[in-house]
Amino acid sequence: MSEHLSPSAATVPAPRDRRPSRRRTRRPVPWALRLCVAVVYPSASAAFRLRYHHADRIPPTGGVLLVANHVSVLDPLACARLVWDAGRAPHFLAKDTLFSGVAGAILRGAGQIPVSRGSSAASSSVHAAKAALDAGDVVVVYPEGSVTRDPDWWPMQARSGVARLALTTEAMVLPVAQWGPQRVHDYHTKTLHRRLRTPVEHLVGEPIDLSEQRARVRAGAPLTPELLREVTDLLMARVRDQLGELRGEQPPAQFHPRPSRTLPGDLPGAAA
Q1: CA 146, CA 182: separation in Å to the nearest integer?
Q2: How far apart are the two ends of the chain, measured CA to CA in Å?
Q3: Is the dihedral of CA 149, 151, 152, 157 positive or negative?
Q4: Which of 30, 164, 178, 181 has a Cα-to-Cα distance from 149 of 20 to 30 A?
């Protein structure tokens, strides 16, 4: 509800600063991203009834690394809506096989980042994501690399590429727990449930303080496997605990082990 102040109200304290308009915070939107929004937005609206908790923690400007759990191949639809509704344009790391033909050209034009695991090109996705964060974009990462194999949908052990990004940029790192997309597409049974407006919830956590670890890296500390694992587990522990809050359940103390091999249909969202 808006208020109309009279000239005599000059001594009244000014209202709190409002977020800039979404048109400004999303910056110029390329045609390819507009096309993606035209497809994804109504699709996500039809498939999910979205509820956001603390979406205002996504800042209107500046680099943001969103670290999310992965419960369904449909997660990107829901998470893209979260970021777009917060007034930002999402940039996902996605499996490189999606970047072929016309669809690949559109994805690249929309600022999405291909991931080529197990090849010399794998590091290029990390560099591309880092460049996006340094440019002030929002990058969404699923550190588990594919849909969790935990039978109860808790996060499994994550890959460490997310820690490399978190430690070598100054981007805000936000943990995001999501719950509900697995009710539409169950990865474990490979079942698509043709239902509309399935409840889906997102909980955006407080920014994770990595100032100490970043200071060590700036001072010359190497990105050892131990440091990367420490930071990766820290990030995913926050996501796991938030997922427990969403579900109203106590999460397990340990992460489910990673699968020994990648299965067809995996849609990794983080660099190796």
Answers
A1: 13
A2: 48
A3: negative
A4: 164
pLDDT, tens only, 213-231: 999 999 999 999 999 999 9
pTM of the model: 0.86
Beta strands in 187-256 (DSSP E): 191-192, 198-204
Structure token pair of residue 56: 């205002």
- Let me know: does 94 contact 268? Beta carbons within 8 Å: yes
CA dihedral sign of residues 192, 80, 160, 152: negative
Give the span between the Cα atoms of 201 and 183, in whole angstroms.
12
Residue type at position 259: P
Six-digit token string for 45: 């609206």
Distance CA 184, CA 63 (A): 31
The CA distance from 152 to 170, in Å, is 34
